TrEMBL record:
This is Addiction module protein. It holds the Pfam family Unstab_antitox. NCBIfam families: stabl_TIGR02574.
Length: 69
């Protein structure tokens, strides 16, 4: 780790991480999937499409998580 980074305030380091992550997300199309990754995604999609239970709304899941905190 670059020792100069530790000198930055935590909020600034978090902002830098967020900016870096956003830049990676914007370029994600530049990284092709491996055949193994594509096969795993296909397997998960098939499992999702064949399941009659579609899950729960995110708001419900988040509320349940917050109850346990």
């Amino acid at each position: 780790m670059n020792p100069d980074l530790r000198k930055l305030p935590l909020e600034e380091r978090l902002r830098l991480v967020e900016d870096l992550w956003d830049s990676i997300a914007a370029d994600q199309g530049a990284l092709p999937l491996t055949s193994q990754q594509r096969a795993e995604l296909d397997r998960r999609l098939d499992a999702y499409e064949s399941d009659s239970v579609r899950g729960r709304p995110a708001a419900d899941v988040i509320a349940d998580i917050r109850k346990t905190l």
